[in-house]
Input
Amino acid sequence: MKEDATREKGQATVEYALTLVSVCAAVISLLLALGPTVSHAFDEVVGALQPARAAEISVTTRGPIVEVSAKRSRRGFGNDVLVTVTVSESTTVTATDSQSGRSVSFSCRSTCQDTLSGVGQAAGSITATTGFDRDTASYQARR
Output
């Protein structure tokens, strides 16, 4: 009887070992089959959690506005501002005054000028926009 109990205990240990080997073989087979998919999913998660590296940051190129300048003209009793815009490609520019809110739109191919009338006597700024691109230039108060 004692021998039977020892045999049963040994048999149980062997059964557990065989079961464990079978489960390990199944897990290894599953990982080999799904490994690339799981690896790709983990890479995406880790990539999303890490801050972007300098070499991987996509840089948005600057728009067509290269330069904007604004200065008081002698017209309109000094209340007019001459706006000069230089662009890198043919585009429509809208120039808006910070004081009066007045704006003027014009087509431009390289360097263009237009006048904003009646902007007021104080110093201000002109913001030139073309779609998503924007640049600002200041002008002095009327003397």
Notes: Helices lie at 2-49. Residues 52-61 have pLDDT under 50 and may be disordered. Residues 12 and 18 are 10 Å apart (CA to CA). The longest helix spans residues 2-49.
